[in-house]
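Structure in, sequence out. Go:
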């Protein structure tokens, strides 16, 4: 029986409390969570081409690069390279078409954020949020 691959999730926020909370709960729910403290670091991580293994066998090569993550969570309040620039980069990358994005925003009014020309699945959650509800959103997004 083949083992189920862990879903890879990127959490982009410079708020270390929020980042640790999300990462810990996602890992507890058996996701492979990675973190980026800046938008620039997020783009660097997303540009990597993941190794694809066949459980115990050598790494295989693919002609078309795979996305490095199955879901991207972005705090709209990150500093340095803004969340908007991170989202623009995601929307320009063909290998991320269809990869869901969850935005963490400060208020219900910010929930009206455009979805990148309809090419990406985009969801928003306003702070403060219930972490169990948030993890359920993640599970639904990668299902």
């Amino acid at each position: 029986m083949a083992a189920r691959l862990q879903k890879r999730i990127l959490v982009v926020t410079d708020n270390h409390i929020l980042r640790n909370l999300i990462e810990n709960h996602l890992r507890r729910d058996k996701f492979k969570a990675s973190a980026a403290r800046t938008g620039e670091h997020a783009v660097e991580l997303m540009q990597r081409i993941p190794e694809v293994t066949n459980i115990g066998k050598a790494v295989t090569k693919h002609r078309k690069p795979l996305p490095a993550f199955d879901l991207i969570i972005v705090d709209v309040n990150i500093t340095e390279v803004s969340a908007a620039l991170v989202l623009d980069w995601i929307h320009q990358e063909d290998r991320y078409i269809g990869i869901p994005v969850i935005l963490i925003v400060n208020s219900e009014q910010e929930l009206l954020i455009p979805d990148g020309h309809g090419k990406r699945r985009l969801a928003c959650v306003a702070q403060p949020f219930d972490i169990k509800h948030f993890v359920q959103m993640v599970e639904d997004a990668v299902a």
